[in-house]
Amino acid sequence: MKKQLMALKQFGWGYLMFALLQFGAGVCLILFPTVSIDGMCYAVGGLTAAVAVVEIVLTLASKSRGASFFGRILLSVLGVLAGGYILFFREEALEYFAVTVSFLVVLDCGAKLQTSVRAKAAGLGLWWVAMVATVIVALVAGALMRYRTEDPVKYAIFLGVTVLADGVLNLLSPFYLGAIRKKTEPSAG
């Protein structure tokens, strides 16, 4: 069982699952901006909490207990709390749904910044592309936390584009992590 958990962790399933969640949520917000926010709260809250719990389990299954371990655990616990807040306090979350989703994107970008710094330290090319894209997505998500508009449809579309862009970054993260592992782990032969 431990061997299978390690294989899942090395492939980056947490990133891939969260990327699929973000693709779905982003596309729904772009194509159907007037869709019931209550339904989005159930979907985003439940899936965010589930992905964060999976990430905690996979992180605990790893043998590493360095600074990145504690950072991943902290971000995952915050993800569980944010997902639980959306699920159990929907009345309040409806009012602050975009702020909550933008906050999750900013938290997720924090993990991606760590990945790009690790890619630079491992000597990977194009690490700066991931860093610049992550900073841009984080800044846009941060602006959405403060930006208010009279047109909720326009706001939902902006939020959908931001979530979709973060999903693309999540899809690229396992490739960077795999390349970092190959460069930093000693050869087995």
Structure in words:
By secondary structure, the chain is an all-alpha fold. The chain has one domain. Helix content is 85%, strand content 0%. The chain has eight helices and no strands. The protein has helices at 2-11, 13-31, 37-61, 67-88, 90-95, 97-121, 127-146, 152-184. α4 packs antiparallel against α6 (97-121), α6 runs antiparallel to α7 (127-146) and α7 runs antiparallel to α8. The protein is globular and about 55 Å long. The two termini are 25 Å apart. The mean pLDDT is 79.
The arrangement of helices and strands along the chain is HHHHHHHH
**CA-based shape:** globular
The largest sheet is:
none
Give the number of helices.
8
**What's the Cα radius of gyration?**
17 Å
β-strand number: 0
Oligomer: single chain
Gap from first CA to last CA: 25 Å
Count of all domains: 1
Amount of beta strand = under 5%
Q: Could you tell me the mean pLDDT?
A: 79
Proportion of helical residues: over 70%
Low-pLDDT segments: none
Given the helix and strand composition, which structural class is it? mainly alpha
